[in-house]
Amino acid sequence: MSQPVGRIAPRSKKAWILSIDGGGIRGLIPSIILQKLEEVINERMDEKRKGGKYLQIADIFDMVAGTSTGSIIALGLTVSGDADNLKPKYPASELVNLYENYNDQIFNHICPLLRWFYPKYKPDKFEGLLKKKFSRKNKEVCTLNDIVNDVKVLVPSYNISTNEEVFFNNYPEFQGPNDYTSFSIPDVIRASTAAPTYFPAKEISNCYYIDGGVYMNNPSYFAYHEAKRIFQAEEYVICSLGTGYYQGELSQLKDGGPLSWLIPIVSLTMNSSSKLAENYFKNDDPDPGSNKLKVDFKYFPIRPTLKRNTPLDDNSKESIDSLKCIAEEYIKKEDFNNLVNKILNCWEPKQYEQRKIS
What we know:
- The model is unreliable at 1-7 and 354-358 (pLDDT under 50).
- Helix content is 35%, strand content 16%.
- It has one domain (10-349): Cytosolic phospholipase A2 catalytic domain (3-Layer(aba) Sandwich), CATH 3.40.1090.10.
- The longest helix is centred in the first third of the chain and has 17 residues, at 28-44.
- It has helices spanning 28-44, 47-50, 57-60, 69-78, 92-101, 103-106, 124-133, 185-192, 220-231, 258-261, 264-280, 317-330, 334-346; strands at 5-8, 14-20, 63-66, 108-109, 121-122, 152-159, 164-169, 202-204, 207-211, 235-241, 296-302, 353-356.
- It is globular.
- Strands 2, 3, 6, 7, 8, 9, 10 and 11 form an eight-stranded mixed sheet that branches.
- It contains 13 helices and twelve strands.
- The chain has 358 residues and is of the alpha/beta class.
- The active site is at residues 68, 211.
- One of its GO terms (molecular function) is calcium-independent phospholipase A2 activity.
- Residues 18-224 form the PNPLA domain.
């Protein structure tokens, strides 16, 4: 039996990984940061190195992972805009526009009388928006097979029909029997964003899926391990974008009952899983106990702090303005400049080779 063949970056090259956390409307924060990253890189990198084109996020990174709202950004930045999968459909600015101007189509309330018996939001308008944004000109809906520039994408979700975690991806040659490339991008996003109590589970092929943030809100650590299997590079550069973390007290919940904890427990679960990934990367070697040779990696955590405890669905003007302010302030910080300088100093145009997969 012949071995499958994958198109991967050569062993001598760096592998660039982008990871985006879940966080509902707070996805506006990483969207703005990525928009600024695109702008700064294109302003400061010489034209010859860029190949005479405007570089987009999908041109820079080899793997892009996103959980929940992060899946909207990850797939929005990597979906192809042409039949040959050579040009990204959207720049980062379009994702900013999505969160600023289309959030009312994402959070579409059901009748208040039904609120305690059903999820908070109906998915109809959200699903319609996704189909509109992730369709070709001929109205054919894009699938995970329509990702640009051979970028590898990874989207966590949870299958409640089989009670197991799921990692939607576009690299079946590395994934064994699971092939998700025929899954539509709108379906994958709906599955990864189906936060309990907010949205109903998403049915795909007779299975029901919920938000990947229930167990992996920050997919950076898993994306790093997947990248090691795929690229076998000499250095891995990991950019992990958060959606904002609130450091204030939640002591008002100390005597809370089921109704008091119903909504906060979702945010707390997501925050704690994000912190777990952060802790893994604090060690010099994020693969302790391994007998393999230590690989070189550089981890860039972009972790803005929220000024208030912003709910996942707070799409008020006050909330949007606050999130924009947080992102714009963070862009001035050293963490962002360090990432920009790493790309400017070390990034090279993508080159690929064919390699048999063992």
